[in-house]
Structures are given as structure tokens and as C-alpha cells.
Specification:
The complex is a heterotrimer of chains A (364), B (74) and C (341).
Chain A: H1 7-20, E1 25-31, H2 32-41, H3 43-46, E2 51-58, H4 66-76, E3 81-85, H5 99-104, E4 108-111, H6 115-124, E5 129-134, H7 141-153, E6 159-163, H8 168-177, E7 185-188, H9 190-196, H10 202-206, E8 212-214, H11 219-235, E9 240-242, H12 254-263, E10 264-271, E11 275-284, H13 293-296, H14 312-316, H15 340-343, H16 348-355
Parallel strand pairs in A: 1-2, 1-7, 3-4, 3-5, 5-6, 7-8, 8-9
Antiparallel strand pairs in A: 10-11
Helix pairs in contact in A: 1-11, 2-16, 6-7, 7-12
Chain B: E1 7-13, E2 16-21, E3 24-29, E4 41-45, E5 48-52, H1 55-73
Antiparallel strand pairs in B: 1-2, 1-4, 2-3, 4-5
Chain C: H1 19-33, H2 36-39, E1 53-61, E2 67-68, E3 71-72, H3 73-87, E4 91-102, H4 107-124, E5 127-136, E6 144-154, E7 170-173, H5 179-187, H6 205-215, E8 219-223, H7 229-241, E9 244-248, H8 256-265, E10 279-282, H9 284-295, E11 304-310, E12 317-320, E13 326-328
Parallel strand pairs in C: 4-5, 9-12
Antiparallel strand pairs in C: 1-6, 2-3, 4-6, 7-10, 7-11, 8-10, 9-11, 12-13
Helix pairs in contact in C: 1-4, 3-4, 3-6, 6-9
């Protein structure tokens, strides 16, 4: 039996990590769920000092650009529009306000658990235009593609999506080519790889020579993945390996990928805190333009001003730790977040704030 | 959300499966896992099964959870 | 027993103070809640409280859905106020209940809610002695809102202020956490899942007095961890008491189903509401006796110690994780929303 939450096994892994961490290693956990697992379990303070974990772009919600969100919020305030969204988008700020604030002021904003719930909403409210705010990495995008397919099959005329999807491999490449960023290895997002498999990440090992291990979401998963990374790192044999075998196959989920390809094409996208990354977004294919809210409800808003002094860009790149930002815990808190890292519960700043790595343990 | 507990498929009707997740039951969409069958353990995301776990892996996690809970109840 | 005919609904006239109001009071409220003080039907209830200091509290109830497994808004309105009195060390005695009802609300549902209030009041040994009903137009309120205020008497010498908390004290909880919050979430549109968990909504005055009897002076403080859950309540205690609290993650009693559903929705059970649980801070020497007293009651069957008060990290709640690391457990920030990531 794999003791996923066994303290003795965790101790054994920590001992081995101490033996193997013979030289400094900076590893980025790309996925916000890893950031939270690390913070919740207190893993960071238990790791040997040689291992530095850097929280990466995090989650598709937190990296939604504030200027994009201004347009979404403006659209939500149009009469007859129902904006359906995942719960974690509600508090994400644009330059002026959030969907939660728009809702308080009378906009019809509904939280859904699944994208298909938004399709059901459209079917139940033929007099309303239901817009689904489509955010997600590769894990979520197939579920949204299925929702789009349902809307097509049902011939719904009052359903559309506002596509702000983000793709993980292009942003990882952007981080690798950024001269400021010093990374030795990646802990790959588990469930993104459930869909993508390992192939789209091979360039990390082959072109950039960095170890890359797909990890699960228990603390011991992350420790096992770090051991695998150290083994590659110490032996100088970078590769893409899977620790999270129970959820990830090398070939990923081809059915889900086919759904993505059927409905979407890559476009450039702007990531909050990082900037524009080529080919890192997705738009609906032209034949589904009638389901594209951006095309159907063209909205122009006066571009708002992005907040100054927010260090999220540097935090995302691993150049700063969350509490090294001047706004952290003061002007920027989970209730009134400024930058992407505080926005979602899985953002690195929110995880630091919530689980207090800045105050406890000392070794962050 | 990255759910770590395997959810067991109890029944299937078209593209909808009833699953057991930690003792609760919920309907999920299985369009993305056409190979899923009753008794399989699946990984959930946003109301969808996105992965069918191989039986051995699922049983291992399931056991670990049960053991963890047995320990909590003691 | 319902005396209302099926299909009857609340009309604006039911709140006008005229004949319809009188009829509603007689057939629904008085019939269920009657007691000598209420039956006087005066503008104010006149109460003889006897010796001791008076504890006085109020709370409003707007829960959606109004009926849920394990309770309803009526039971909640009685238990919520009774519990606030009980954890303050008071013996709850009298309640007021004021209703704001949306026009068109089914009379049968109102009857059911009032009957359930009566059942809860009777369990808790309290009387509803005064009340009020207002009806608002459609859309003016969401179905029904209830406000209850409560009066209780604190026995002489009893002080359960959090300032009495001292390093070394133990933190006890009376049973599994998050059951009420999860039950409500499971009913929400769009989330719909079926769970065997039911709300823990129950009066706590019996267990509170059992705790006081067993622990006496050694009982420092009690709280009911309602909105914001265990995490938020412990933070309040740490701040108000000026002490640190260290909780052992592995000791926190949670139902398997609550953990499973929270994993699915991306929520933390330590932030989910409870409506029938009490946190007791007690001096270590009396802890076993108090735990035994709690465990001997059905509402305290799962009582355990989950942590202790520390002299360090004042004002903070720390959690020792399964791995043996320590992290901060913060207060609830905003309403918990289900997440995808």
C-alpha cells in the first residue's frame, strides 16, 4: 500500500531528500494546487535548505488579465446578460471592480460548478443571454468544449462563452527563456498532464536541459517528485517523468484533447503579472463564432490602469517571495486582492497569507 | 479542483454516471472518459470524469484513505 | 399538526395588523407556541428573571434553503439564539421571534417552521414570549426571514470571558465539524450532490450546563463555532484572550463524507458552519471530567481534545499538520465559494 498521508513514510522521504540534496536546487511548482498542498502541509519548512520551491503561474483564475476582466465585468452589467462563472473568479479584480461587486450592484452573475451547468441555465432562461466565463488550463478546457458541443447540439441561441483559457506549456517556455528567471527544475501540474500527457513537455528536458516531474497533490507525492527531480539533477539526465502514475498516463487523455482541438485554436494571451505569451490562449474556431461572446457582444471599455508596485510578476518568476512585496498583507489581502498571486486561494501570495509561511517556521 | 480521492462509478446512463465521492453521491459527465464502466475509479474535475484510474492504483489510494480514517476514529 | 388548508398563502394583509394578522397569530403562532406569558398577548412580555445577571442576545436567520436535512430555518432560529446564551454561561429562558415573510409564502410551510420552532424550544426548555410578523411584497424578501432575541440568566460568580484563557488550557470540541455547512451546500443549486450528512442543528444548553457542572471554575470559556467554522471561532478566542492556540490537524473530528465533499468543491471543512457544536476551553486538570460529561450526552458523543492554548504566538491559531509542520490557521475571508482551481 502507498501510504499517501503516512507520517513515517513522509519522514523517510525527508531523510532521503536531505541525503540527495547535495547542491542547491530551485524547483518551480507550476500549479496552484501544489502551492496550496505545500503550504497546507507545511512542507516548505521541512525541506532541506538546499531545496527552494518557487510558486509558478498558479492557476488559470489568478492569471486572468485585469484588462480582460474589465471587459467581462462591463459585459456582465449589460441588460439581459447572465454571466456564469466558476466561484473562484468572483473576487478576481479588474482594474476597477470584480464580478462579486458587479453582482452586488445588480449584475446577474451566477456561480456554476460545471460548465454544463451554464448550458442548462441557458436552456432554462431562453429570454436571457447566458455567457460562460471560460477560464481554465488544459484540465478544464475539455469540459468547456463539451459544454460548447452541448450548446451546439441543443441549438441554443442564447449561450456563448468568453474564452480566456490559458495553456501551460507555452508559459513554461516563456519562463525558461526569460533571462531573469533562474530555475533548475519543474514540478509539473498533475491534472494538466492527465489531459496532455508528457509529450508537450519534452522540450523542457530536451531543449532546455531541465528535469521535469509530474506530481500528485499529497505532500508525499511532492516529496517523491522532488526525489525523482534530484535523481535527474544529480545524474545530469534531464527527462520528463511521472510520479503521479495513478492519474497520469504518458499519452494523456486523447479524447479530451480531441475535444479541445475540435472547438479551439491557439491565440496569443495576456497573463496577469507575466504579460503577453505567444500561443498561450485559445479562441473558438471561426465556425463556432456564434458562440463566441467576444464577437457577439463587442464591448469597448476605456483601458483601466493596472495597479502599481504589485510584485506578482516577480513572484511568479520566482524572483521574489510573496512577503517581500510591499503590498503583501497590507494593500493586498485575499479579501481585497491586487495581483494574481493573491487572487485565487491557490495563488502563491494567498497560500502564504492563509497558511502563514511568512510568520511561522522562518525557513521560507 | 484537483480532487485526490478516487470516485467510484456506481451506475451509468448515457453520458452521465452516478459516482461515490467520499461517501457522497453525485452525477458527473463521462463524455471525456468513454472507456469508463461501472466499478471504475475516476478522477473528477468541474463535474466531469477526466481520467479512469487503473484498478490497482485506485485501490491503493482508497485503502490509504480508509486506513487514515480508521486511524482518526481510534 | 397542520391546521392550515393546502394551497393557502401569506397575503400582504397578514402583516397589516388587522383581522388577517389576528387570525394568523391565533391559528399558527399562538396555537403552536402557546404559554402563559405569550397568551397574555400584551405589547410586551413581562418577565420575572430572579437572581443573577441577565444575558441578552439577538440573531437573524436568512438561511437558504429554508428546509434542509436535519432542520429548518425555525429550528435554526431557536437553536442559534439559545446556543449564544448557553455558551455565554447563561441558562436560556425566553425568546422573541419576529418574522419577515414574502407575500405568497405557503401557509403550510410557515406552520411547519413554527411547529419546528416549538419543538426546538421545548427541547431547550425555553419559551417564545413575544413576537411580530411583517409581510413584504414579492421580491421584497427571499421567502422568509426570522429574527430571534433571547434572554437568559447567568448564575452568580460565573465568568466565561476569553480573557480567562491561560497557557496550558485544552481546547475541546463536542463532535464532528462542518456538518451543517456541508448540508446547506449540498442543497445549493448547481452543486447538487447527495450526502448522508445532516445538519447538526441542536440546542446546546444541556451540554453547556453539563460542562459547567463537571468543570466548574476550570471551564474558562465556551463558544459555538457557527459561521466561519472552527478556524474563525478559534481565531476570535485567540485574539480576545490574547493567547496562542495550537491545534493538532489529526485530532480534528471530521466525517469522511464532509472531507470528501470538501475535496470535490475545493473547500476547507474547518471553515464550514456548525449549529450544534461547542468549543470548550478548559484547564488541563478538569479536561477528562468535562470530556466524560460531554461524551455522555448525544450532542457531545464525539467530544475530543483537539489542541491547547500556548503562551507563544499570541493572537494566532497554529495548526500542526499531519506531517508535523506548523502553519497558521487564519480567519474566514469572505463567503466560501466552490472552486475549480
Amino acid at each position: 500500500m502507498q501510504p499517501y498521508r503516512n507520517k513515517d513514510y513522509a519522514q523517510h522521504l525527508l531523510d532521503r531528500l536531505r541525503q540527495e540534496a547535495v547542491r542547491p536546487l530551485s524547483a518551480m511548482e507550476v500549479c496552484g494546487t501544489h502551492t496550496v498542498a505545500i503550504a497546507r502541509s507545511g512542507l516548505r519548512e521541512l525541506l532541506p535548505e538546499n531545496i527552494r520551491l518557487i510558486s509558478g503561474p498558479g492557476c488559470p483564475v489568478c492569471v486572468t488579465d485585469d484588462l480582460d476582466l474589465d471587459i467581462v465585468i462591463a459585459l456582465a452589467q449589460q441588460p439581459g446578460i447572465v454571466m456564469a462563472t466558476f466561484g473562484d473568479m468572483m473576487r478576481v479584480p479588474g482594474t476597477q471592480s470584480s464580478l462579486l461587486e458587479a453582482k452586488s450592484r445588480g449584475a446577474d452573475v451566477r456561480v456554476v460548478y460545471s460548465p454544463t451547468d451554464a448550458v442548462d441555465l441557458a436552456a432554462e432562461h431562453p429570454d436571457k443571454q447566458v455567457v460562460f466565463l471560460a477560464v481554465g488550463f488544459e484540465t478544464t478546457i475539455p469540459t468547456i468544449a463539451v459544454a460548447v458541443e452541448q450548446a451546439v447540439q441543443q441549438g441554443l441561441r442564447n449561450f456563448s462563452i468568453f474564452s480566456l483559457h490559458k495553456l501551460v506549456p507555452p508559459v513554461m517556455e516563456a519562463l525558461l527563456t526569460d533571462p531573469e528567471v533562474k530555475l533548475d527544475a519543474f514540478i509539473n501540474p498533475g491534472h494538466v498532464c492527465t489531459i496532455l500527457g508528457t509529450e508537450p513537455f519534452k522540450f523542457i528536458a530536451e531543449k532546455y536541459g531541465k528535469p521535469c516531474v509530474v506530481a500528485g497533490f499529497e505532500a508525499v507525492d511532492i516529496m517523491e517528485a522532488l526525489l525523482m527531480i534530484l535523481s535527474q539533477y544529480n545524474q545530469g539526465r534531464p527527462a520528463v517523468e511521472i510520479q503521479y502514475k495513478r492519474a497520469v498516463r504518458p499519452e494523456g487523455n486523447p479524447v479530451a484533447r480531441a475535444f479541445i482541438d475540435k472547438y479551439f485554436i491557439p491565440v496569443n494571451a495576456t497573463w496577469r503579472g507575466i504579460g503577453e505569451v505567444p500561443g498561450s490562449g485559445l479562441a473558438l474556431r471561426d465556425e463556432f463564432a456564434h458562440l463566441d461572446a467576444q464577437k457577439r457582444f463587442p464591448i469597448t471599455v476605456t483601458p483601466g490602469k493596472r495597479v502599481k508596485n504589485c510584485s506578482c510578476g516577480q513572484v511568479l518568476k520566482g524572483l521574489k517571495l510573496p512577503y517581500e512585496c510591499a503590498l503583501f498583507g497590507k494593500a493586498c489581502t485575499p479579501m481585497k486582492p491586487v495581483g494574481p498571486c493573491m487572487v485565487s486561494t491557490e495563488g502563491s501570495c494567498a497560500a502564504y497569507y492563509r497558511y502563514g509561511a511568512q510568520k511561522v517556521g522562518g525557513t521560507v | 479542483m484537483c480532487l485526490a480521492i478516487p470516485s467510484k462509478i456506481l451506475s451509468i446512463k448515457g453520458h452521465t454516471a452516478e459516482i461515490d465521492v467520499g461517501g457522497n453521491t453525485k452525477e458527473v459527465n463521462i463524455t471525456l472518459t468513454p472507456e469508463a464502466k461501472v466499478g471504475d475509479y475516476v478522477l473528477l474535475h468541474a463535474g466531469f470524469a477526466i481520467h479512469v484510474m487503473d484498478e490497482q492504483a485506485a485501490e491503493e489510494i482508497f485503502d490509504a484513505w480508509e486506513v487514515a480514517y480508521a486511524a482518526l476514529q481510534e | 399538526m397542520s391546521k392550515t388548508e393546502q394551497g393557502q398563502v401569506i397575503l400582504l394583509g397578514h402583516g397589516s395588523g388587522g383581522t388577517l394578522t389576528n387570525q394568523l397569530i391565533r391559528t399558527v403562532f399562538q396555537d403552536a407556541l402557546h404559554n402563559p406569558i405569550l397568551d397574555e398577548m400584551l405589547d410586551a412580555a413581562i418577565l420575572d428573571l430572579g437572581p443573577g445577571r441577565v444575558a441578552f442576545t439577538t440573531d437573524s436567520f436568512v438561511v437558504d434553503p429554508i428546509f434542509f436535512p436535519g432542520g429548518d430555518i425555525g429550528k435554526l432560529a431557536v437553536c442559534g439564539t439559545v446556543n449564544d446564551l448557553a455558551v455565554s454561561g447563561a441558562v436560556p429562558l425566553y425568546l422573541s421571534s419576529a418574522f419577515i415573510i414574502e407575500e405568497g409564502f405557503p401557509l403550510a410551510d410557515l406552520q411547519r417552521i413554527v411547529n419546528s420552532m416549538q419543538a426546538a424550544a421545548s427541547t431547550a426548555g425555553v419559551r417564545v414570549v413575544t413576537g411580530d410578523t411583517k409581510v413584504v411584497g414579492r421580491g421584497g424578501a427571499d421567502k422568509i426571514f426570522i429574527n430571534t432575541a433571547g434572554i437568559g440568566v447567568v448564575p452568580p460568580g460565573r465568568d466565561l470571558s476569553p480573557r480567562r484563557i491561560q497557557p496550558g488550557d485544552l481546547v475541546l470540541v463536542s463532535g464532528t465539524l462542518g456538518d451543517h455547512g456541508l448540508t446547506i451546500l449540498a442543497q445549493r443549486e448547481g452543486l447538487a450532490f447527495t450526502t448522508p450528512v445532516v445538519s447538526d442543528c441542536t440546542p446546546l444548553n444541556r451540554i453547556a450546563s453539563a460542562v459547567m457542572e463537571a468543570g466548574g471554575e476550570a471551564v474558562r470559556c465556551m463558544r459555538d463555532p457557527t459561521r466561519g467554522g472552527l478556524a474563525t471561532t478559534l481565531n476570535e478566542l485567540a485574539t480576545q484572550g490574547g493567547q496562542g492556540i495550537l491545534v493538532q490537524e489529526t485530532l480534528i473530528p471530521l466525517r469522511r463524507e464532509v472531507v470528501g465533499a470538501c475535496e470535490m468543491l475545493g473547500l476547507d471543512p474547518l471553515y464550514l458552519a456548525n449549529e450544534g457544536k461547542v468549543i470548550v476551553i478548559v484547564a488541563p486538570e478538569a479536561a477528562d471530567k468535562v470530556l466524560d460529561a460531554m461524551c455522555s450526552l448525544p450532542e457531545g458523543q464525539g467530544a475530543v481534545a483537539v489542541g491547547r492554548v500556548t503562551g507563544s504566538d499570541r493572537g494566532l491559531v497554529l495548526l500542526e499538520t499531519e506531517l508535523g509542520a506548523t502553519r497558521i490557521m487564519t480567519m474566514l475571508e469572505g463567503e466560501p465559494l466552490p472552486r475549480i482551481c
